[in-house]
Prior knowledge:
Elements: H1 2-42, H2 45-53, H3 55-76, H4 80-112, H5 123-143, H6 146-176, H7 186-225
Amino acid sequence: MACTVMARTNYQSSLEELRDDVLYMSEVVAERLRAGLDALERKDERLAREVIEGDDEINDMYLELEGTCVDLIALQQPVASDLRFIAASFKIITDLERIADLAVNLGGYALDAQRDLFPDVDMQRIGRTTLEMLDDAMSAYADEDADGCYAVADHDEEVDAMCEAASELVVRDLIEGDYLGDGEGDEELESLMQDVSRLLLTIRDLERIGDHAVNVAARTLYMVENDDELLY
């Protein structure tokens, strides 16, 4: 009997440790996202390279936690509620790893960005909103807060609207603006199109970060209430 109690205690400790480790990974990913946004705003090459070179650390965290989830399922045969927690945690770390990849993209865009052609596009506002969504989603995971999950999903509509408006602004300004003066050649045109492409990719990636935050909220809601309403 004592061995059974001890084994159960160790198992519960392992579940709590998994939660703590997932939350720690989310903190590191959020910090990388902040750094990527800062690098993009300041055109900071050093900071951009730190974000890019730090991706291996995130990948190592992901692989270690993936192994933990697999071991807990294979060795402990968890009951339904614990199984949902482990499965949700596994899916959440997958979304966190992908957010980190998108932060790396921001670092790459920061290295390539030489000028701001469209100052009216408030990329930082979009970035701050997606970062808030990620923080709120992880708080819902930590607190097992179903209402918080719905709030994150509702917030995604705001991000989608901001991204759509930003993309439309870029295209409209490109059509209406005089970005190539008389006598400019193919090289200048190519440079302009690269800048436009980079900006549109940045908008797309920020929208994807918001989508991953919603995924975290959806998995958390399923974990807490066995409710798949937000899954898609």
